[in-house]
Amino acid sequence: MNENKFDVIYLESKIKSSNWWKTALKTIDSHYTNERGVMLSHHLEAVYQNIENIFNYPEIGFYKELFGLLHQIKLDKESVKNHLKIVALLHDLGKIEEDKTLIIPHPLTGKPAHKRHGLVGLMAAMEIIGNELEQLTQEKLIVYRTVELHDISFGLFREYRSSGDIPKSDKLSYIAKKIHPEPGAGILYLLIFKLADIHGHQSIEDVIWFYKIAASNYYKEFNIQLPIPTESDIR
Questions:
Q1: How far apart are CA 22 and CA 79, in angstroms?
Q2: How many Cβ atoms are within 10 Å of 9's Cβ, its own excluded?
C-alpha cells in the first residue's frame, strides 16, 4: 500500500483476510434471531453497501443539502465516502469480544474505559489496518474514532428516553473533535454513518432525533443549517 494514500481496496482486503472477519462470518448478527441465519459479516457488508448507495444518490432534496454541507465544511465527498466504507466493515467487529462488565485501558489514551463494542472495534481496527494508516494521521483518527463512537448517538438517545437529558453543544463539540478538528466535520461523519447503519433496525427514530439535536445544539452555533431527513430519505 502507498503510505501516503488511503487505499480502500487494499484496506478492504486486509479487513476481510483478518481473523476478526473470519469470526464475523460465523457469528450471528445480534439484530436478528438465530433462525434467520444472518451473520455479523452480512450486517457489515450491508452497511458498507448503504454507504455506497448514499453517496450515489442524486443530489436533490435532503441529499443536495447534505452534500452541500460537506463542501461548506471543506470535506471532500469522495474521501468521506471512502473513510466511511472502511468504518462500515469495522464498526461492529467489536461485538465479537465485547464485555461491558470489564474496564480496560483505552488503547489511545490509557484511561479506564468499559469494554463496549465500539472500543473493541477500535482495537480491532488498530490491529488490522494500524500499520497501513500509520503515516495517514488524519485518516487514521477519522477511522479509529468513528468506529469507536459510531453508536454513541444511540446511547444518547436512550439516555434521553429514560431521563429527558439532551446533549448540549459542549458535549457534541467534545465528541466531534475526537474525530476531526474542523468545526462541524466530526459530527457530520457520525450523522452520515447513521443513515447507513440501519440494517436490522426496525426503528430509525434515534437517527432523526440525532439530526434534530445536532441541528439545534451544535450546528446552530456555527451558523450552519443541517438538513433533517424524513424516513423516506433513509429507507
A1: 27
A2: 9
